[in-house]
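Lab meeting notes turned into a lecture example. A postdoc, R.K., suggested we walk through two folding results consecutively so the class can see how the record format repeats. The first protein's sequence and structure tokens come next.
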Amino acid sequence: MSDYADYARDASAVQGAADRLLSAVATLDDTAVAEPSSLPGWTRGHLLAHLARNADALTNLLVSARTGEKIPMYASEEARDADIERDASRPLAVHLDDLRTSAFRFNTAAAALPRDRWSAEVAMRRGVVEQAARLPFRRLVEVELHHVDLDLGYTLADLPAGFVTQELDFLTTVKFAGHPDVPPLRLAATGDGPVRDTGRADGPRLTVTGTPADLLGWLTGRGDGAALSCPAPALPALPPLG
């Protein structure tokens, strides 16, 4: 199993991240929920609806891994998008209740998955096959990064250092490794951080240096990379995470 995921650690981290998110969202009102998030085209309400439905989608996969029954994340891509659009304009109180109850369902399903089923494979969106052991990490990414996207004062610099390390490991060893649209890159984290190679392997690597949080912001499209340094005149364009 890749180092970027540890089932018990990540399941616990999801609960802490969700609690922080809920505390932040509880300070809003209905007007603030309807305001734009930092994701183009989505209000905060869209993000909150997505987070609740993503919890249920990953719960489906945890149940599938436990029982062996083939349960999809979502009924369809169209249903996923329609659910988010339908629920985006709900009052804050309804969003909060949905976030709490969907988080409870996810936590319950995560606790119920026995260790001998952690290696079970499940089908995520767009044909991605994942081990059940990595589902809590997948949920952690959604909660932490979308907390930043809510634009409530929680920034990339506030992300837990351990999570930043995990996500950088995932992006460089899984998401972007060998990607035809990612040039050969060497990411050098300042301080005592490791050097990570990613992208294509068809030429000399461009070294990009910066703090782990700034590197993560650039890789995930949540930062323009202005604080990063590289010998090229400009940072290369990266494909969206999707």
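The second example is placed directly after the first for contrast:
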Amino acid sequence: MTTHGPVLPIWSCGGCDLPWPCPTRRRELRAEYADAPVSLALYLGAYLVQAAEDMPWAPAGALHRRFIGWTRQPPEVQQRSTATVPTERGRHEPHRAG
């Protein structure tokens, strides 16, 4: 059993006091639902609805990213979430004969 459960109604983590789901709980959930990503999204969607009721002042987009948005990203992208991903060279430039 994890110590990183939500503390309601403020939705902070009981284990580390970060916004829930914290990075530790996200890793745990990713491992628990490794073969069932849709089930993970449904599970977190139920928490999203509950959190939206508890925190009506929170922007819907921020809650979505916090509870569900991270589930579709590979774990390595989450760890470098502030980094930019380079585009393919020349992908958006017209081809030049050289």
